[in-house]
Amino acid sequence: MKKLASIIFAFLLIISCSEDNDDTVTQVNTTFNFTHKWDGTSVSNTNFNTIQYTNENGEQLSITKLRYLISKITFQKSNGEKIILDGYNLVDVTNDSNLSFTPTSPIPSGNYSHVYFTFGFDNDDNYNNNYQDLNSTSWSVPAMLGGGYHFMQLEGKFIDNTATETGYAYHAIRAVDISKTPKEFQDTFFEVDLGAASIEKDTTFNIEMNIAEWFKNPNTWNLNALNNALMPNFNAQVMMFENGQHVFSLKSVTP
Asked: What residues does the Copper-binding protein MbnP-like domain cover (predicted)?
């Protein structure tokens, strides 16, 4: 009888321990905050419409519009397993909206070897203009350029080489060469790797965009030569993609 009681006690103890271990796996929410600077100087829409910045090429310029798309926030474990969250966010600095994004899906707490997000849409998402909220904000790309969506709209004015205030429209899309039949495309979305993170509770990632980097690394941008009609300019789009690799940085992770 004592032996039977010991077996039952041990069985109940195993079940109890198993339930306790399950309880330690918690679901947490993540938030991504986006701030903006020009080589160390904070930028918000209150700084727009005034020529006050100087790019790497020595041109003085203003910002009148800045908005960009992020998508496919991904958490990767050390074994390679990935958790890819649905949803996207149109960061709109112009209207001071969507500067903070909390995906609707939580993730399991734990250690992650990489946290990523995609700048723009990858080809699976950038298809058929199916997102009505983006369609209503003039975010679509014309069909003659392949359709889909913008990745970024950065606009303003600069002092050109005739000392005239001239507008620029630095719009990033999927690169397309419309001079070829059929059209030639090159992917220009890119992943931003925020590095490793240990997440035990609701966590915020504070991310900074250095706007000046769009104009300087590795391609020094000459606004006198490249200021408008950049969407159908295949080479310009590739240059934007290259410069974008250095634009975002993770400033802090806070619980």
From this structure: 30-225
